[in-house]
Amino acid sequence: MSEKDNKTPEQKKPLFRGYADHKISTLQEGFAATNNLEDLRNNPPQPVKPTVCDDGQTPITDDLFVLAHHDPSEAERTGYSNYSYWGSTFRVFFKKRISGILLGFLVLLLAFTFIQPLLPNQKDPYLVNNDPNTGIQLRNLAPNKEYWFGTNAIGQDLWSRIWSGTRTSLFIGLCVAVVSIVVGLILGSIWGYARKWDKLFTEIYNLFDNIPYTILRMLLMYIMHPSLKTMIFVMCLTGWIGMSKYIRNMIVIFRDREYNLASRCLGTPSGRIVVKNILPQLISVIMLQMALAIPDAIGSEVFLTYIGLGLPVSIPSLGNLINEGRKVMLVPSQRYQLIFPVIVVSAITISFYALGNAFADASDPRNHR
Amino acid sequence: MITLFLVLTIVFMLMRLLPVDSYFEGRSDAMSETVKNQILSQLGLLDPWYTQLYHFWTKLIFHGDLGNSIVIRKNVPCVKIIWPKAVTSFKFGIISLVFQQVLGLAMGVGMARSKGKFGDKLGNTYILIINAVPAAVYYLFIQLYLSTLFKLPMLYSPREWVSWILPVICLSLGGIASNAMWMRRYMVDQMNMDYIRLARAKGMTSTQVAFRHVMRNAFIPMAQSLPTTILFTIGGSLYVESLFSIPGMGGLLITSIQRQDNTMVQAMVLLYSIISVVGLLLGDIAMMVCDPRIKLVKKGGSR
Fold first, then answer.
1. How many CB atoms lie within 10 A of CB B272?
2. CB-based burial of residue B277 (10 Å sphere; 0-12 exposed, 13-18 middle, 19+ buried)?
3. Does this complex have an ipTM over 0.90?
4. With an 8 Å Cβ cutoff, are A295 and B4 in contact?
């Protein structure tokens, strides 16, 4: 039973001035303007010209009009908006077909990277393959049915090495991205919001920022022994700096807006203001930084490996693979050893970069209409 | 100045953590502990860290001395080794810098003026690819394919001018992309401003507006990074130089690291830090020159 049916006639009497009544009064233009329906029923107003509809033939009679009912649910709908932040973010995001395709591609690639070792007939990336008949290593074998991407200089299967390397590199990239974001977010929030710490943090930032990152990374890798752990550590050490600076600048912009002032007057604790009022504004920036941190980490892994400060040669990583390929690139028949890893690296970095940008655009509410 | 002092001190302290093997010229297995200690104490490496730091600073400030090379050219002062290399790097850097600025800014202006059209999209794709793909990767491809395509030499040789082409292209590509990207963004920002609408309303053509108003204002933020870029041309590019075997500073740093010449690494890292700090300072000054509204020295009285 809806509310409407329970109403007694007395309750109906004071007419509700909503949309429904407005419609009636618009229709009744040309009649006496009144909102009291009871009045209208008792003395129907004398129709004035024109007495016919616009087509000039149909006479206007009362039975053309129906009394509109007051519907509370209808009235409620006008004040309701079905806007949801994430909903419109994804709508804007998927409106561009290219971002959908890229996302699908990246998800497939990531899934395949992890599924690949579980598939049947996959070779061990570390295994040195020997010819079953002669026992000689299958060195620098061009791509064929058995070895899809060929073999490298000591006869390891390039196909499985590439996927293993992608795993390593993506692992480094993800670790660095997550650590940089978390540390950068925490330190940046403190730096931006607590005025007391501003001076100290700024000094520390200047100190780190004045040494070029590449040099700092090289120096640290040089001091510590190159391994997976040190590489992640070194990249995190330089990664959080830019992030926290960025967060700090954004927080300084939003810190003294009126709504935050109001929150503070109402006694909201600082932590809550930062987390609930300010950080949601920065979602797009954070996502962008995160998406960009991954290609950056992969790129600097390639670079560090090139100058001999990367991962040990025994661990397959995209940097190591490219470096191995570089050594044989002067022989045109062996260039596949360079080209395959390069294609994989480029595909991963470009899609992360483009996706990050597309998502950052989509998550900005100003782009939602 | 204080920042510079702290940076140099930190780098120096980090340097003390470096592996000491290189001081023994690759004969560390054959040496006894006593001999090793003797060599180290001769170099002053066994002193407590504050004494070392003190010696380092007094030497640097009063004699301009960064120590002697150990491996690359034994007992030759680092400064003497670095100087000719820096000149080579500087030549390359300046050439590519001209390309970066001219082409990059032109591209940015062009993209901003044709916003949303084909040219803009093409430029954006270029920027995307250059930014996303690791530099190490596309340099390799340029070296590999452009050299065979146009019959250019793969490695640098000082006598042939054609061997300069590929390194300069490599050095410029990244700079062109970033210059174009920022120039485009600043210009698009400026174009939406009210004063531009006024300029259009008073009858200026869009070309006039773009060059007289938009570009001048959009260039201000770009000016800040200019001195750093110029200074870093001395440092050369780590990657390009070692890839094309150009005898420049970047290549030297990589060689010193690979051959574990600690004093050389130390001297060069210090040099890079100095360049970076001075560059930032000059950048602020450059911005002040371009935009009279920005003042670094606080004037009393106003507001």
1. 26
2. buried
3. no
4. no
Instruction: Select from B173, B183, B187, B90 the least CA-distant residue to B126.
Output: B173
CB atoms within 10 A of CB B225: 17
Could you tell me if B274 lies within 8 Å of chain A, comparing CB atoms? Answer: no
Cα(A137)–Cα(A119) distance, integer angstroms:
25
pLDDT of res. A10: 45
pTM: 0.72
DSSP letters spanning A272-322: HIIIIIIGGGGHHHHHHHHHHHHHHHHHHHHHHHHTT-SS-TTS--HHHHH
Between CA B205 and CA B199 the distance in angstroms is 9
At B120 the pLDDT is 87
Is B290's Cβ below 8 Å from some Cβ in A? no
Q: Which residues of B touch A345 (CB under 8 A)?
A: 133-134, 137
What is the average pLDDT score of chain B? 76
pLDDT, tens only, B67-104: 666 666 666 777 777 788 878 888 888 888 888 888 98
The rounded distance, in Å, linking the Cα atoms of B75 and B71 is 8
Give the pLDDT score at B295: 64
CB spacing of B7 vs A210 below 8 angstroms: yes
Give phi and psi for A353, each to the nearest 5. -65, -50
Q: Which residues in chain B have their CB less than 8 angstroms from residue A326's CB? A: 140
> What is d(CA A364, CA A367) in angstroms, rounded to the nearest whole number?
6
Interface contact B264, partner A, CB < 8 A: no
Average of per-residue pLDDT across B205-225: 80
* Chain A contact set for B276 (CB, 8 A): 210-212
